[in-house]
Amino acid sequence: MGEIRLIEIKEEILTDNRKSADDLRSALKAQNVFLLNLMSSPGSGKTSLILKTIEQLKDRFRIGVLEADIDSMVDAEKIAKAGVPSVQLRTGGFCHLDAGMVKKGLEAFDLSSLDLIIIENVGNLVCPAEFDTGAMMNAMILSVPEGDDKPLKYPLMFTVSDVLLINKVDYLSLSDFNMKACYERARTLNPRIVIFETSSKTGAGIKAWANWLAEEVKRSGITAR
Amino acid sequence: MGEIRLIEIKEEILTDNRKSADDLRSALKAQNVFLLNLMSSPGSGKTSLILKTIEQLKDRFRIGVLEADIDSMVDAEKIAKAGVPSVQLRTGGFCHLDAGMVKKGLEAFDLSSLDLIIIENVGNLVCPAEFDTGAMMNAMILSVPEGDDKPLKYPLMFTVSDVLLINKVDYLSLSDFNMKACYERARTLNPRIVIFETSSKTGAGIKAWANWLAEEVKRSGITAR
Fold first, then answer.
1. Which among A9, A86, A94 has CB closest to B101?
2. Residue B184 pLDDT class (50, 70, 90 cuts)
């Protein structure tokens, strides 16, 4: 028999990434920048929600957006029209961002002129949940058309998220989405998760979410302009 | 309008990886070890082909296998039964190996006791083609049941491979696989690709492939025991 050795390469990679993420988080804190990581499936409304959040918070914070969701410039152009600087990371099919990629993206900003940077992560409920980006807060969107069973299918995403935005609630009347079941499933995985019900179309819940985020940014010690 | 910056994160990652791969290749050459990277779809017969290759070459080279195809130990155990040392990389769902992962895997071998190490890469025709592992040679398997159109669908894999093993030729009588079309399609993408038709079941083509590989290893300057 030949000898067999087993190496847990995934754990090693995640451990290396966690170290880089911690370093990045400390560096950002020292530079007075709050980094928010927004994750979801494709098509759940990340870009629209970011635009609505910018509308609410642009007079309170100097905001930037790190765009990684798709390879085209479309999302970055929408963000730029809202008057905030954006960096488009062309990931070329990678399924997630890691702390090293986020660091490279952030180097393209003038960090001294920003208080809050929002990462629009790759549209995927699996891999992004595994990689700490260096953000101070993880937010996720679950849109009503995706269904209330998603916490059962993608538990890690709900476990690592500080806040869940149940988005596109304007679809509720056409859907059998069970809001109570969704809350229960999410809170079974993560008892401390904060939940907002939102719609970028009707504006429902947007102010509540944006005000809560503003408080969290301040509570973290970031001093806005 | 906010400012938009574009960052080609994928190119940066591939460039960093290429540098690590070149360093690894030089280090292995200095240590008199030939590294072969074997790629294919899942189920095309990588493990069986490696076992047949070991049978042919075990008296000519001291062989090791770096196993990354699946998370279980099954493949590594089959290899160990053939009497050669193996390292099982648990990738936990990663779609490819990069040079850094291969380097970590190789650290678990006693390189001074080996002449030839075969990487069984993750079963995937897309991502592994993009990442230089540090190997001296890329080999790929296309099995007859997968179809002769694969060079059209996965061109990069055929472009980066030095040798193509058209495997499971024992299925040809039951298949409409067009061997001539497959050769033409592969050679249009990569005129220098060397092609063998093999079957681990019947043994067809195995000796020709193994003898060719042995010559290539010697030609590269690796001196066997």
1. A9
2. very high
Q: Are B130 and B96 in contact (CB under 8 A)?
A: yes
Contacts of residue B77 in chain A, CB cutoff 8 Å? Answer: 4
Q: 3-class DSSP state for residue A142?
A: strand
For residue A1, give the nearest of B8, B80, B92 by CB distance. B80
Q: Which residue of B has its CA nearest to A81?
A: B1
pLDDT tens digits, B106-139: 999 999 999 999 999 998 898 899 999 999 999 9
Rounded to an integer, what distance in angstroms lies between the CA atom of residue A105 and that of residue A48?
21
**Chain A residues in contact with B63 (beta carbon < 8 A):** none
What average pLDDT does range A217-224 have in this prediction?
88
Tokens of A38: 């927004």
Q: Which strand ranges, in their side-by-side order, compose the sheet holding B4-7? A: A194-197, A163-167, A137-143, A34-39, A116-120, A63-67, A86-89, B4-7
| Confidence band for B71, pLDDT divided at 50, 70 and 90 | low
Judged by CB atoms closer than 8 Å, whether chains meet at A9 and B88 is answered as no
DSSP structural state of residue B91: -
Q: Per residue in A115-164, pLDDT tens?
A: 999 999 998 898 899 999 999 999 999 999 999 999 999 999 999 999 99
Residues in chain B closer than 8 A to A84 (CB atoms): 2
At residue B189's C-alpha, the angle toward residues B184 and B191, to 5°, is: 70
Is the predicted ipTM greater than 0.95, yes or no? Answer: no
Single out the residue of B10, B50, B97 nearest to residue A97, CA to CA: B10
Calculate helix-pair angle for B99-106, A9-30, nearest 10 degrees. 120
Q: What is the DSSP letter of A2?
A: -
CA–CA gap between residue A221 and residue A25 (Å, rounded): 13
